């Protein structure tokens, strides 16, 4: 029997691709008229906007997928300045230390914080705690200043999340592992080489080139067909009904490549407890405001990937990516483009403000922080009512539900299980496809 995949984001597309490569029958159903899920490239009035991920870390699995699809020559590296990351501190942007050993000598942190960093080398490991949050871990190993000015903006930038809520073992279990193995996180980093920074890339024409190419290569991709029900038959096979009617095919397994809330709605009639756990996963709202200015109007050198705003600085936005510093082709010549993020778990009330108010507030903040004279030449907003799933206490029952469903041959390929990054989703989807081949 074939395998049904529900959802045409990067996870569902990757599962389908590797099943197809292995000669396994499948059907992929996507409710909308386009594939790619949150990966969306939008050319607009001379600007090339990414209204989902702005760039990708080129992991081994993602590199293999790009190579398999014949897209290696279309990879587009970020400019060299992308290695620089800035954080707002006391009202001005300061470059964040790029390596653990620079924490003591860079001058970004106070003498007191550097003393606590030095003391971390001799602090013994504590027993593992599955309920420990990221903030709790960094505070325990270092001090509050590192929570405020390193962890908080970093987590806001990746998860749109609150480090006081996100669980260590669900987000960065490698930190706990370094503590247990070496007694000190910094010693662990030093002995492991500190980790190599991956290439940060896009693709010519934007990231949607990846998902568009996958869609074109798949032989059993069904667009515009929303799955409305999943019914388990007496022989344990599954039958699906879609907006086009009941499917004649019976499926030996179902892959849910959907947000947790969407999967919950499908599962509720037959798997009510699991559906309830998935429905409880928290997705905060977020808006991206794109603002373009003449380069001559911006006094800041914009020599980096972008800048993040710690919650302690009481800013309106969580931070901005300096889009044209990474990829010069994203705006007309002699202009700079900022992609500014408003909302997330720590700024939820800002995310829900009217579009005009958000644009005005972002422009005012950019003008103040970057020394910008005059009005933007162009602005655009994109809004997600449910942005990034939060790996807080509510994700634990959802992950347990996914394990229970897998015992019934209903599998999950989605960022709320795999991890929020595209490389995480590709890795998880590739691994799952290998397991499905051997069913």
Automatic annotation (TrEMBL):
The family database entries (InterPro entries) matched by this protein are listed as: Amino_oxidase (IPR002937), FAD/NAD-bd_sf (IPR036188), Flavin_amine_oxidase (IPR001613), Protoporphyrinogen_oxidase (IPR004572), Zeta_carotene_desat/Oxidored (IPR050464)
Domain Amine oxidase, first and last residues per copy: 10-431
Q: In which pathway does it act?
A: Porphyrin-containing compound metabolism
As cofactor, the record names: FAD
UniProt cross-references to Gene3D superfamilies, sorted A to Z: FAD/NAD(P)-binding domain, protoporphyrinogen ix oxidase, domain 3, Protoporphyrinogen oxidase, mitochondrial, domain 2
- Enumerate the GO terms in the molecular function aspect: oxygen-dependent protoporphyrinogen oxidase activity
State if Lyase is listed as a keyword.
Answer: no
User: Which E.C. number(s) belong to this protein?
Assistant: 1.3.3.4
A matching Pfam family: Amino_oxidase
Q: Which UniProt keywords apply?
A: FAD, Flavoprotein, Heme biosynthesis, Oxidoreductase
Official protein name in the record: Protoporphyrinogen oxidase
Organism, as annotated: Hymenobacter defluvii
Q: Which gene encodes it?
A: hemG
